[in-house]
Amino acid sequence: MIDIKKLTIEKAGEMMRKGELTSVDLISACLKNAKEKNKELNIFLEVFSGSAYGGDDALEQAKKADEIIKNGKGTKLTGIPIAIKDNILIMGHKVSSGSKILENYQASYDAFVIKKLKDVGAVLMGRTNMDEFAMGSSTENSAYGPVKNPIDPSRVPGGSSGGSAAAVAAGMALGALGSDTGGSIRQPASFCGLVGMKPTYGAVSRSGLTAMSSSLDQIGPLAKTSEDAKIIFDCIIGKDEMDSTSIDFVGESFSSGPRFSGAPTPARPFRKASANFVIGVPRDFFKEGIDSEVLQNFNKTVEKLKNKGYKIKDVVMPLLKYSLPIYYIIMPAEVSTNLSRLDGVRYGMRKKGEDVFDSFKKSRSVGFGSETRRRIILGAYVLSHGYYDAYYNKAWKVRRAIMKEYEDIFKEVNFIMTPTVPTTAFKFGEKKDPLQMYLSDIFTVSANLAGLPSISVPSGFSSSQLPFGVEFTGPACSDLSLFAIEKDLRNNK
Fold first, then answer.
1. Where is the Amidase domain (predicted)?
2. Which residues form the catalytic set?
């Protein structure tokens, strides 16, 4: 019997190429887990299984993948089950972004990353649940109910890519795609004991991703190991003419392309062995507001890296403390703009009113959940006349200063290391105060503001057997070097 929870993408691919396993066997095992556990955990909004899906049925995809492998044309992802976050377009399928306002919207084309996965014969398992329009840190904000953490169903899986992380942790897929606007891949990776990676801004095209905050959003992989995450990453990167912010990622350098204003200067390729890397630790940034067990685990992980040969250097980054308030000015402003198209006329559900304005008001009131409405209102406020300069423009100035701070510090160190999240996975309803919930992203948002690659890797378990995660952030386009760290930690005895 296949133990999906322990099987990696790398091992499964090797077994299929040797004829020791078929994709049909692999997908059947994932579908069995989904059938048995999805009702309880609420991970998938839609599993691609059954005659209604025709050629998109997961088993039909698996049969085609087995033929590709049999003919010797398979890649490392051929026949591998991948779960897809519900804000990434898959042609012919619904894409609701976890919202009622898009509950019947059907994608008319494939996202760039979906094309890439289909090209290599990966098996798309279905659409995973998420916080509405990726707004949340717990996947409690989905219009279709919360996702439960497979490790402890009384706790959240993190968010907003909680469904994608939970799918891998529950053995319903071997890898998954999520989107990360302020930590939405890395935070659920930490809560579910996985590797979660936010690539350099532009390394992965956003074409076909339902926009939340365009200068912050980035699609990335979730997997059990860095090797598996890198296999997915290698597949989905690439220059896309449909995305003006897309870059041509080659190795650890790229040919420049248009990006958001103030984006960091590309890093020079690392050429030293990983043991020679210098890791900066901004200890002043997390002296308060962090769980004692999380801090203890972080310090132990620092010692493991020292034993592995890494050089640890305490650094001071005084602007990092402004990352969260800056994020909650820029992000809602872009949310307000991006979601203005969902008005019951152009896109989304339509509730008939007495006139156009009344219809518009009713459609959005019913279609959007409370957290989405909160951020739209906040965004409209900071963009309004009289407040644009006071809030939005000032936030962008500080954002550029944070980018410069990172650029300067990377002249001294190769990576910055912090805990991924201040706590382990919390229980449902524990963070009812929105401000307390927002603090879950305190260590993750700065990488999005600066457009930098960042990875969360597992680093042990708490006394309650809940996973810990630590985060490493590097210069632009140091993505490949980031994957090496998790392997070193995993192999450290």
1. 25-481
2. 85, 160, 184
